[in-house]
Amino acid sequence: MKKFALISGALLLVSAPAFAQHVVGPGVDLTFNNCVNEGGITAKNLNCVASQTNKVHGCFKVPITITGFVAVDGSFDLQNETNPGPLNPFWHYESGGCNNSGLQIRHDISVSGGCDSENNPWGDFGADASSFITAYVPGYNGIPNRGRILISIARSAANPTQLDPVKNWYMFHFLLTTNNRAACAGCTEKVAIVWNSATLYNNEGRDAEVLVGPDKTANCDQINGASLSTCAATPTRNSTWGQLKALYR
């Protein structure tokens, strides 16, 4: 219930956004090392013999002007290619999981390790917003080797901003560490992370805008040599706030 309280606190900032959704098409990129405009890559091997922090950057583009922008929900799937059975301990990021500290989220572009040409919707040093990994669900949808990651980033409803089309926007970066590699087996396994969707909320009562699919490079990152077919085999499915609440009933 502690995690549910964090989710509720994040979404209170946006003053009950509308749940109706309007899919506006491709527009998300997921890259290691740097943002997409600065040459971020979509495949990387983890260092499983020493501690390492990897930065996975999320960027997006909108096809229309979005005024009154206050928050975003993101949905991701982690798919293990090596092991078709239940996820090994290294890939258990949920509260109480073996590697629960191995996945973190930041929304501060100033420490993202680059991203110099992306636009920032969160203010200097991310001061205008709060970010949360709101859920990690291993074995999601009855598929043992899959994990569902949900995130929320929110500004105050009293302090909205505008997202302009054509521009590339920074959204977040994950910190993916190998600090617990010895205690949590499975670090070397082949895994793909797919960014399913980004749902953009406004404070003007209009439908939320949903971005799905890649913009410039790919919405899937391959870890430890995972194949592109693993990316393709992970279906894109939206997760709304209503679906998220259902996970905690």
What report would you give on this structure?
By secondary structure, the protein is mostly beta strands. The chain contains 3 helices and 13 strands. The model is unreliable at 1-18 and 236-249 (pLDDT under 50). It has one domain. The N and C termini lie close together (10 Å). The chain has helices at residues 2-12, 228-233, 241-246; strands at residues 21-25, 28-32, 43-44, 53-60, 66-80, 103-106, 129-138, 146-155, 161-163, 169-177, 191-202, 208-212, 220-223. The strands form 2 sheets. Strands 1, 3, 5, 7, 8, 9, 11, 12 and 13 form a 9-stranded mixed β-sheet that branches.
Write the layout of secondary structure elements.
Blueprint: H1 2-12, E1 21-25, E2 28-32, E3 43-44, E4 53-60, E5 66-80, E6 103-106, E7 129-138, E8 146-155, E9 161-163, E10 169-177, E11 191-202, E12 208-212, E13 220-223, H2 228-233, H3 241-246
Parallel strand pairs: 1-12, 3-13
Antiparallel strand pairs: 2-4, 4-10, 5-8, 5-9, 5-11, 6-10, 7-8, 11-12, 11-13
Please summarize what this structure is:
9% of the residues lie in helices and 37% in strands. It is mainly beta.
Summary tags:
249 residues, mainly beta, nine-stranded mixed sheet, four-stranded antiparallel sheet, disordered N terminus, disordered C terminus
